[in-house]
Amino acid sequence: MSSLNILVVEDEDAIREMLVMVLEQAGFRSIAAADAEDAQKVLDDALPDLILLDWMLPGVSGVEWARRLKKDPMYRGLPIILLTARGEEEDKVKGLEIGADDYMTKPFSPKELVARIRAVLRRSGKINDLAQITVGDLVLDTEQHRLSIGDKQLDVSPTEFRLMQFFMTHPDKVFNRTQLLDQVWGRSVYIEERTVDVHIRRLRKILAEYGREELVQTVRGFGYRFSIADSATVST
Fold it and tell me: Where are the alpha helices (DSSP H) in 128-186?
């Protein structure tokens, strides 16, 4: 769960801080923004796994920003849960019609919030209740901290394990070095971008022993992508 990031967009300081605390206690990473403008800057740097979005925000409202995101192919698949004091059925329908994945009326319990988040992440394929992520014959076991191909266990470091966990839960998407640093190492840690290249090379070397080095691909000018579909045509 530690590799999953949630963007919290809430203009009230006390509520925003409470949401961040609840999420971190539940094992998520969180990034906070006070309005849609700041939230968009976050998206420009790193793509979260889910957005908790307040309906009423200063400037561009939360519901309007959500509408824009759902129209953009880059963000269309990004899960959004709307948070609002509006409890009328008409407002709920409006929120869901623009593409929001769920809707919570304030006040709500932290336990219910976490349960709703997990449900949305489960539906979007970002978490696996079995604690195993399987892509083809590649299996990542988050409980036993093992990565294997078939019956062969791969010798990877904790960082490379987290890198593969992130890749396997975000297949076919391109991430630049900064995004990978934020998602795998965390924003609070200062590490040079070339560190990503070092771990990618080592990961490919390990995968190459099983003829699977093409699972982790370089997208020239952009970054890296994990793709089982493309690799299937070149692996033996």
Answer: 158-169, 177-180
Binned at pLDDT 50, 70 and 90, residue 235 comes out as: very low
Q: Is the pTM of this model over 0.85?
A: no
Q: How far is CA 74 from the centre of its chain?
A: 14
**Chain centroid offset of residue 113 CA:** 17
Q: Between 3.40.50.300, 1.10.10.10, 2.60.40.10, 3.30.2350.10, what CATH number should domain 132-231 receive?
A: 1.10.10.10
Angstrom distance (rounded) from CA 3 to CA 161: 11
The tokens 């952009």 sit on which residue? 222
Q: Cα separation of 192 and 84, whole Å? A: 40
CATH of domain 5-123: 3.40.50.2300
Of 165, 171, 193, whose CA–CA distance to 181 is shortest?
Answer: 193
Query: Quick one: tokens of 230?
Result: 């493309």
Identify residue 204 by its one-letter amino acid code: R
Is there a contact between 81 and 50 (Cβ–Cβ < 8 Å)? yes
Position 22: which residue type?
Answer: V
